[in-house]
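Phage tail protein: structure, please.
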Amino acid sequence: MANIGLKGAYLALKNEDGSTIVDATKGLSATGVFPIDTNKNHLNLGLQTANISALSGTPTKINGNNEVVDISNPPSSPTVALTANLINPEVKQKILGRVKLSNGVWVDGERPVYSGLIIVTQSPITLEDVYYSFGMGVFTETTQNVQTNTDTAETRESDTLTFTSMGFVGFNGKNYGFARAGQDSFDKQKLFDTVFPGQTFVTASKDGTADPSLHGGQSVDVRTDGEKNAGVGK
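Here you go.
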């Protein structure tokens, strides 16, 4: 689907059964969900790209009697290459499966750590939110390219992570899900409950995605008057 921009992403640590770890210490937050926002107080500086690959498998032609008689269509095996200006350093270590020692040093854990991921963009015409959702997978980081500053320039390095998706019970065993805010029967709470079972970030009484503190280094209220009156984001 054609999209415009990258509005953000939401992460959660998962138990092996796919449920969300709803704990600020064992998981990523007290609600279970952590937004990669642009609030410097949250130690985030937002995303640059979310490059989703292999949404479909590679078809293989089946030949017989000198003809193509069928096509094998294997399942998808999506990966997401995330590039961020900055992801909260502690959250980043957690989703990479690293463990903090008593001296504060993070080291690789003994077992893979599972995460869930939602990427949010927009439809070109209606500008309604579009969601690419991955209920279960593993984050990895393969390189860290540290470079010197010069006398005339500051050299920044981005956070570059790869998310490898796997089958998820909430998607009938498939690797990813797609949703559009304007489609019939869409419900944001149900989407978050599906991708992040047990989460309390988006509920019937609170929409964490509308929290004004997710934007910029200061708390700027970006809600409409109607949203303010309805208590959205509070």
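Notes: Residues 4-55+71-210 form one domain.
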